[in-house]
Design goal:
- Chain A is α/β, with parallel strands linked by helices.
- The first copy, chain A, is built from 10 helices and 13 strands.
- A 7-stranded mixed β-sheet of chain A has the order 3-4-2-1-5-6-7, sandwiched between helices.
- In chain A, helix 1 packs across helix 10, helix 4 runs parallel beside helix 7 and helix 4 packs across helix 10.
- The radius of gyration of chain A is 21 Å and the shape is globular.
- The first copy, chain A, starts with 10 loop residues before the first strand and ends with a helix.
- In chain A, about 55% of the residues are buried.
- At the A-B interface, strand 8, helix 5, helix 6, strand 9 and strand 10 of A face strand 8, helix 5, helix 6, strand 9 and strand 10 of B.
- The complex binds NADP nicotinamide-adenine-dinucleotide phosphate (2 copies).
- Chains A, B: Keywords: Oxidoreductase.
- Chains A, B: This is Aspartate-semialdehyde dehydrogenase.
Amino acid sequence: MTAPRSSGPALAVVGATGAVGSVLLQILSQRADVWGDIRLIASPRSAGRVLAVRGEETEVIALTEDAFDGFGKGDIVLFLTPAEVSARWAPVVTARGAVVVDQSAAFREDPEVPLVVPEVNGHAVRIRPRGIVAGPDCVTAAMIATLGALHAEYGLADLAVSSYQAASAAGRAGSEALRRQLSLVAGSTLGEQTGDVRRAVGEDTGPFAAPLALNVVPWSGELREGGWSSHELAVRAETRRILGLESLPIAVTCVQVPVVTGHSLTVRARFEREVDAGHAREILEAAPGVVLVDDPEAGEFPTPADAAGTDPAWVGRVRGSLDDSRSLEFFVCADNLRKGAALNATQISELIAGEFA
Amino acid sequence: MTAPRSSGPALAVVGATGAVGSVLLQILSQRADVWGDIRLIASPRSAGRVLAVRGEETEVIALTEDAFDGFGKGDIVLFLTPAEVSARWAPVVTARGAVVVDQSAAFREDPEVPLVVPEVNGHAVRIRPRGIVAGPDCVTAAMIATLGALHAEYGLADLAVSSYQAASAAGRAGSEALRRQLSLVAGSTLGEQTGDVRRAVGEDTGPFAAPLALNVVPWSGELREGGWSSHELAVRAETRRILGLESLPIAVTCVQVPVVTGHSLTVRARFEREVDAGHAREILEAAPGVVLVDDPEAGEFPTPADAAGTDPAWVGRVRGSLDDSRSLEFFVCADNLRKGAALNATQISELIAGEFA
Ligand SMILES: NC(=O)c1ccc[n+]([C@@H]2O[C@H](COP(=O)([O-])OP(=O)(O)OC[C@H]3O[C@@H](n4cnc5c(N)ncnc54)[C@H](OP(=O)(O)O)[C@@H]3O)[C@@H](O)[C@H]2O)c1
Ligand SMILES: NC(=O)c1ccc[n+]([C@@H]2O[C@H](COP(=O)([O-])OP(=O)(O)OC[C@H]3O[C@@H](n4cnc5c(N)ncnc54)[C@H](OP(=O)(O)O)[C@@H]3O)[C@@H](O)[C@H]2O)c1
């Protein structure tokens, strides 16, 4: 960097113009400012756009080798980009000695890259042989703080999860496709017969495998052995990794719903020890990054509309199994762009910045 | 009845103007016509309306004692009404010797009233000490044929179900509330921040406990011990009853999604015997009332938009557990107004009509 560096490490945000990037810029403006210079980077398509961060107008520059000029040890580069972009450019950054925090799937399975959710395994951030730290998928991120807290008390033995995933998990293209489809179905004289939604939406389903407006789509990712989706297997592998439970039985069904932002999950967890729902509620209430809202008759339960735009995971509908004294059911919602991505990446970056302080 | 009766038992449809009633009239027009006179009944609000059934314009009459004039042994009265209405009027009908088929919750827990899904326990229709037969809740109805078929082969040992319920399960008021909310959120400059959906929708959430447009609502029914909802306990009790497995462990989480018609469920089923997903697919393919669509990469998986307006339960995403050779996961969709109500009631009525043929 040619300009004199203000105090604190420099931060580059690659993918600053995306769904996660936009939320990240908001978050940087809201949290304690530990950063020196902040550089915004995106594809050449976005070069020259001006975005506000920390109240300053900042020009977006194109992702090239030069974009990282001046970055070195102690500085941090966030990748909020498609996995191919992260995979291609992270080594360019680490070669300069700066640390990469990647929010894509590029490095999540790499044993030399820690996969970190600060509330659960923040310590793991310090051991990063490749100079890269990864954040999890937004489904994993939504539930992991609740699971971590319950596991510490009761010992997790088995997990069954069903997701209700928001469209913005597929980035700007996802929320735009849902909004487009909603206006198409709203404009049509929609009955309740087969094919009505498909006819109204047409072939252009955006990043989804079927129309999402007024519908539910039980598929995301690629096909893997046994009929599982790559997304489901990723949630399973990441949950095991972050909790440090490499052989935990986990069943996941990933389903997309017509919500713009905010992932919801139903979780059935079986533990090694007996559980008491009242005590479990106390644990969840005290867990970092988790807020309990659990008085359904008073209208207190989590919904994605309420979780969107907030930092924590909202948990409710906590019930002890009627058949098994070691099982709990609950429902959890979190903002997929915040805890599921931008917030988690910011928290990781702050931990790393703290090391050099 | 004063007019000469045509051949076949007379049929009265109480609640002919409702969400289920309207679909029932379509179904009567589509299936083999085994009925003599068909009488349409609703509240006094609807008296005088003219509806088409079997191609004939038929006037709706108000529910009074006189509405059942001429009905007796061998005739059938369908109640597609709120539970209080069914509870109040079913005895009036049975006192005349006609059989009641009730689609509400009024009699589902009565041991003297068989709870019937013809594909699974059609035989039960014949033993009806009170002259009343009940159909199940629409969540139970969506999955019970798949469970029945798999249970016959493998022996069910444990069930965890999460629902993705459509708005029309709450009747006309439900689908109208969702449509109203969708036009409100479509007209607002909706961001992705907390409260946006709540602000756009306002206080009038219709029959739902929170706004349903662009949201997911994990609550329906009343609060029961342990934080369970009455709806969840009903699905559990009905599933056990229909399968004849009075102590089957079942966990259910009922969640409403912004879909007009078509319930979806994720099901995790553990069996007494080892399961093979390929063989399970064959069983489901052969099961009555079930259609298998399971080639996700080719876009073949069930969605509620595709199930709406059709008779069967559509099942897909059939996967063997990765951890337990006795467990299966799958995803099932069915039209809550058809298999979940009107179709099932029609099938029951046809079985009873057959007894007198
Ligand atoms: N959305 C979520 O809920 C979520 C949650 C967890 C993880 N993630 C992951 O986070 C990453 C970003 O997701 P998103 O939802 O923000 O996606 P998005 O809305 O599509 O944004 C993608 C960003 O990457 C940039 N980009 C794309 N191709 C590029 C290239 N060749 N060179 C430089 N920049 C490029 C885009 O810049 P332009 O604007 O210039 O095209 C944009 O800033 C993805 O890996 C995603 O899987 C997302
Ligand atoms: N919707 C589903 O997916 C579903 C599935 C399974 C079971 N069920 C059950 O089926 C029943 C009907 O549901 P729905 O969804 O069709 O409800 P709906 O759309 O609200 O229709 C209710 C029907 O009942 C009639 N009704 C209401 N109060 C009455 C009264 N005092 N006297 C006579 N008729 C009266 C209404 O007549 P007016 O039009 O004159 O008011 C209307 O025809 C309910 O018990 C429901 O729980 C529904």
